[in-house]
Design a protein that fits this description.
Elements: E1 4-8, E2 26-29, E3 36-37, E4 46-49, E5 56-60, E6 65-69, E7 246-254, E8 257-265
Antiparallel strand pairs: 1-2, 2-3, 4-5, 5-6, 7-8
C-alpha cells in the first residue's frame, strides 16, 4: 500500500462507495497530517454539498481553482497573527492587467426595482472593541498602498494607492450625486483634543510633492468646487467694505500658468 495507512480508490481498486466514488482517491501517509486527493499533476474533482440545493464547494482540478456556491465566513478570534486572509500572487504578464482580489456585487432586486438599500463592491471596517483603549497606532477602514521596488520608465505610467472610477452605462434619470469618491461622517462625539478632519493629507516622505491636487479636467469639469449648506465655512454676503490686516497668497497653477489665490487676513 505504498506506506499509506489507508487508500480508497476506483475503478482499479478494491473499494467503491457507489457511483460517486469513480476516480476518487484518498491517501493518508504515515507521519503526515491530512489527506491527499489525487496525486501531483493528476488532481481530482471534489465536491462538498450543503443542506440547500445548489450550494456546494467544488475543487475543479482541470482548471486549478476552488469554486464556492454559497458564502464564506472567516472568524479569526483572539489572535496575534497579522491577518485573517492573505492573498499573494506573482504576476508574470507583460501586456495584460492582473487583479490580486476582484470583487463584483451585482444588484438584481426582486421585481426589477429597488426603493432602498444598496450594494458595496468592497466593505472595509476597522473598529475598536467596546471598553478598549488605544494610546497609539491607527484605525483604518480601507488601506491602499502602491509600492515600486523596480524601475518606472514611461510617460504614461500612473501609480496610485487608491483609484475610484464611475463606469459608463445605464440611464441616469434622477440622482442626488454621482461621485468617484464620497467622504462622509456619522460622528456625534466631541473630539476633546486634536483635530477632526474630513480629509487629512500628509507627506511623510522626503520627496517634495508638486501638488496637493492635480486636476485633469479634460475640458469636462464646470466648477472647481461647490460649497453648500456651510454657514460655518462661508460668511454671510456683504456689500460694505471691510478691513484686513494682511493677505496671504495660495499658489495655484491653472492652464500652465502660475498664479495666486488671495486670502485676506481680517
Amino acid at each position: 500500500m505504498n506506506n499509506s495507512i489507508f487508500e480508497v480508490f476506483t475503478p482499479s481498486g478494491s473499494i467503491a462507495a457507489g457511483t460517486y466514488a469513480q476516480n476518487f482517491v484518498v491517501k493518508s501517509k504515515q507521519n503526515v497530517s491530512g489527506f491527499d486527493f489525487g496525486s501531483n499533476g493528476a488532481g481530482q474533482y471534489m465536491y462538498l454539498y450543503g443542506a440547500t440545493a445548489g450550494k456546494y464547494l467544488k475543487w475543479k482540478s482541470s482548471s486549478d481553482y476552488l469554486d464556492l456556491h454559497g458564502y464564506l465566513k472567516v472568524h479569526n478570534h483572539s489572535t496575534t497573527i497579522g491577518y485573517a486572509i492573505e492573498a499573494k500572487s506573482n504576476f508574470n504578464g507583460a501586456t495584460t492587467a492582473h487583479f490580486g482580489i476582484t470583487s463584483t456585487v451585482e444588484w438584481e432586486p426582486t421585481g426589477s426595482t429597488a426603493t432602498a438599500g444598496g450594494v458595496q463592491g468592497l466593505h472595509g471596517v476597522g473598529r475598536l472593541a467596546a471598553s478598549m483603549t488605544v494610546t497609539g497606532g491607527s484605525i483604518i477602514g480601507t488601506y491602499g498602498q502602491a509600492c515600486n521596488l523596480g524601475t518606472l520608465n514611461g510617460s504614461g505610467v500612473i501609480m496610485a494607492g487608491l483609484y475610484g472610477l464611475i463606469e459608463d452605462g445605464g440611464v441616469f434619470t434622477s440622482v442626488s450625486h454621482v461621485a468617484g469618491l464620497w467622504v462622509d461622517s456619522h460622528l456625534a462625539q466631541a473630539v476633546s483634543s486634536g483635530n477632526f478632519d474630513m480629509c487629512y493629507i500628509t507627506n511623510n516622505g522626503s520627496t517634495v510633492a508638486g501638488n496637493v491636487f492635480y486636476i485633469y479636467a479634460g475640458h469636462h469639469i464646470t466648477n472647481l468646487f461647490t460649497i453648500d449648506t456651510a454657514d460655518g465655512m462661508v460668511s454671510a454676503a456683504t456689500t460694505s467694505d471691510y478691513t484686513f490686516t494682511k493677505t496671504r497668497k495660495i499658489k495655484v497653477v491653472a492652464g500652465g500658468e502660475t498664479g495666486y489665490v488671495i486670502m485676506d487676513i481680517v
